[in-house]
Amino acid sequence: MLTKKQHELLRFIHERLKEQGVPPSFDEMKEALDLRSKSGIHRLIMALEERGFIRRLPNRARALEVVRLPESAVPGGLSLASSQRGFRPNVIEGNLGKVRPMRPEMDEDVARPVLVPVMGRIAAGTPVSAIQTKSHTISVTPEMLSSGDHFALEVRGDSMIEAGIFDNDTVLIRRQDHADTGDIVVALIDDEEATLKRLRKRGASIALEAANPAYETRIFGPDRVQIQGKLVGLFRRY
Fold this sequence. Notes:
There is one protein chain. The protein is α+β, with helices and mostly antiparallel strands. The protein has helices at 4-20, 26-33, 38-50; strands at 54-56, 64-66, 114-123, 131-140, 150-156, 170-175, 184-189, 193-202, 205-209, 218-220, 225-235. The chain has a 9-stranded mixed β-sheet, with no helix packed on it. It has a two-stranded antiparallel ribbon with strand order 1-2. The longest helix has 17 residues, at 4-20. The relative contact order is 0.14.
C-alpha cells in the first residue's frame, strides 16, 4: 500500500495532468506536499515508480505519466483509506480483519494453521518507503498469534543482524500503535519512511536503534515517529 505522502503526490500529479496536460515541477510538488527538500520528492517518485503507479518518460524533462491509481481511487481523484480507525497514518491499508486461530472441527485435536497476509517489504537498514500491497500469505500456527491483528513483512537489509534478523527473513508483526522501550517495532518516520528497529524512549525523544554497529542510532521528536506494530515472530528459509 502507499504511504500518506505517496498518495498525496500521486493525487497531485494526476490532477495536474488532468487540468494542464503537463506534470508539476519538483518545486511545485515540494510546495504542495509541504516538504523541506526536493530529495524527499525524489524518494516518493522512485517509490511510486517501483510500485508501478507512475512512469518516467525517457529523453523528456519533467515527463511523468500516471500508469494506474490505487484500488481506493474513485472518479475525480484519489480517496485515502479511512477505515482503519485509531491507527494513523494508514501505511498498511485495507480491511485485514481480525486474525483469529481457526478452531478444530468436532473431532480434531490440532488447530489448523492461520493464513497471515504478507504486506510487502520493510527496511532493516537505511529507512525507505517500504510498505507495499499484500503480495501473498503465509501459514502460521495459532500458538504464535496473540489477540489482535497480525501481518508479515519481508526484511531487506542487515541493520538488525545482532538481534537475529537477517536480510530476506520474514517477520511476524502484531499491529499496534504503542510499544515499550526495548521492543523491536515497525516505525513510520515523518509519514514517509518505514523501518524495523529497536525502540528506545529517551525523555521526550524517541530513538530507533539498530542491532548492527555499522548503523547509528537515530533520534527523533515524538511527533515524527508513529508505531505501526511490534515484532512477535520470525521465519527464515535456508
